[in-house]
Amino acid sequence: MIQINNLKKSFGNHNVLNGITEHISQGEVVCVIGPSGSGKSTFLRCINRLEEATDGEILVDGEMINAPKADIDRIRSKMGMVFQQFNLFPHMTVKKNIILAPTLVKKMSEAEADKKAMELLKRVGLEDKASAYPNSLSGGQKQRVAIARALAMEPEIMLFDEPTSALDPEMVGEVLDVMKNLAKAGMTMLIVTHEMGFAREVATRVLFIDNGVVAESGTPEEIFTNPQNERTKLFLSKVL
Amino acid sequence: MNSFLTFGEWYSQTFATFYRCFIKENRYRLLIEGVGVTIKVSLLAIALGIVIGFLIATCNLSNNKFLNAIGRIYTGVIRGTPSVTQLMIIYFVIFATIKWPKWIIASIAFGINSGAYVSEIIRAGILSIDRGQTEAGRSLGLSGAQTMFRIVLPQAVKNIFPALCNEFIVLIKETAIVGYVGLMDIQKAGDFIKSSTFEAFMPLIATAIIYYVIIKLLNIGLKRIEEALRKSDIR
Questions:
Q1: Shortest Cα distance from B126 to chain A (angstroms)?
Q2: Residue A14 Cα to chain centre, angstroms
Q3: CA of B146: which chain A residue's CA is closest?
Q4: Percent of chain B predicted with pLDDT > 70
Q5: Residue B232's pLDDT is what?
Q6: Does the beta-carbon distance from A153 to B141 stay under 8 Å?
Q7: Do A77 and B235 touch (CB under 8 A)?
Q8: Label partner for B102 (CA 20 to 30 A): which of A191, A234, B16, B217?
Q9: Looking at residues A99-111, what average pLDDT do you find?
């Protein structure tokens, strides 16, 4: 589904990604872990071109998305993105946040988008907040709305960039629950996270990124109980 | 004039001066017509300033090096030269052979001038909106323009508006130089009365009061709009 070949990214003289080659198949839940500054987020952001790769190829369904002529808006609408800082639109109600892209990009009718928005809000347990403004919500609620907003475009893959890192501890659970349900429903997911318990429980595969390369990759079982790479061992000894 | 005037004498002298300045030969009409000219020139200039400002802000914010250069040169030249000089160049050089009404040419000059300042205000307003908003919009598949018009600008307006109001007020006062190209605005009318009556105090104070009242009224109106904008800012 997504094929990444020798992805490199540098900011000026600073090399963040030093050649990552990975394949993500349909239905996989891939958790990306690693120390801060290792390039996890940059890796994720390159995949929907919020950052431009310096070198390498990213193919989505066989289509090279970092070609200069790629129709990036159409490709992006197949990939949902959830940010650490939620990035809800504060001048719109929760429902308007969700129906904006479907009506604007997919030309869905307002009524249809409305119906879908309510279904999604129900799915994330916030149907009573449809007409609220984002600033009146808690962090956990905001993030669940952000997930619903991304799902409204019916993406083929969901990208999560540290979705619980900006949350108060008591709100982490509600967001992870939504994500678990999503994984169970068969959504392809790529998740940058510091929640090792979640990665262990939900991931089908874990990537350990360090110094801009995938230092180790395997099932949660392999990575967490029997890591092979020294750097993985060191990292896990610090966080577990 | 000695300092032992009775109130009666003072009153009659003052009234006589007032009569000479404003009533005689219907001189008050010059000021009223001046108000019309000032308002006409200002309104058209404000409209042009917003359009030009928006275009230049777009140039400055784009990723295109050529457009960046245009924006940079425009704001650099306009902000680096006096507005009187700009007005005179536009009137006597650029429009030397084009016989448009004077007030329109003056408005164009002020619009071009204001555009440079408005562009900076819009640019700052847009940059004040968190980058995450743009990223969220783009990640949902919205185009750059859709993201700008649906997500960034509606939020930026609240930051842009107060600074824009200030720019309008500066612009209205700036139009007091249109006398240089032979337009009879408020300032020129006051000046004209001064030179035809040899009275400085009353015509110039009247000029000041008229500008002050216009700007006060404008301020009241703009404050109302600003409050309405804030009300929609639900916390």
A1: 15
A2: 24
A3: A104
A4: 97
A5: 62
A6: yes
A7: no
A8: B217
A9: 95
**Terminal-residue alpha carbon distance, chain A:** 32
Going from the N-terminus, what domains does chain B have, and what CATH number goes with each?
A: 30-172 (1.10.3720.10)
* Beta carbons of A42 and A34 less than 8 angstroms apart: no
* List of residues 6+ apart from A144 with CB closer than 8 A: A124, A125, A126, A174, A175, A178
| A94, A104, A143, best to mutate vs chain B, most B CBs in 10 Å | A104
How much helix, strand and coil, in percent to the nearest 5, is found in chain B? 85, 0, 15
The Cα–Cα gap between A129 and A145 comes to 9
Q: Compute the distance between CA of residue B174 and CA of residue B185 in angstroms, rounded to an integer.
A: 11
Q: Answer whether residue A20 shows pLDDT above 60.
A: yes
Q: Which of residues 167-186 of B touch A (CB under 8 A)?
A: none
Instruction: Give the number of A-B residue pairs with CB atoms closer than 8 Å.
Output: 66
The answer to whether the CB of B87 falls within 8 A of the CB of B185 is no
| Cβ within 8 Å, pair B234-A133 | yes
Angle in degrees, 0-180, between the axes of helices B28-61 and B102-127, rounded to the nearest 10? 40
Measured in degrees and rounded to the nearest 5, phi and psi for residue A176 equal -65, -35
CB-CB neighbors (< 8 A) of A79 in chain B: 139
Q: Nearest chain A Cα to B230, which residue?
A: A91
Q: Which residues pair with A208 in a beta bridge?
A: A33, A216
Say whether pLDDT at B195 is over 80.
yes
Does B141 lie at the interface with A, CB-CB under 8 angstroms? yes
CA distance A191 to A81: 10
Residue B49, CB-side half-sphere exposure with 13 Å CA sphere: 29
Whether A141 contacts chain B with CB within 8 A: no
ipTM computed for the complex = 0.91
Q: How many residues does chain B have?
A: 235
Inter-chain CB proximity A48 and B142 less than 8 Å: no
pTM of the model as a whole: 0.82
* Binary contact (A88, B132; C-beta < 8 A): no
For A156, the token pair is 């083929």
Q: CB B140 to CB A133 under 8 A? A: no
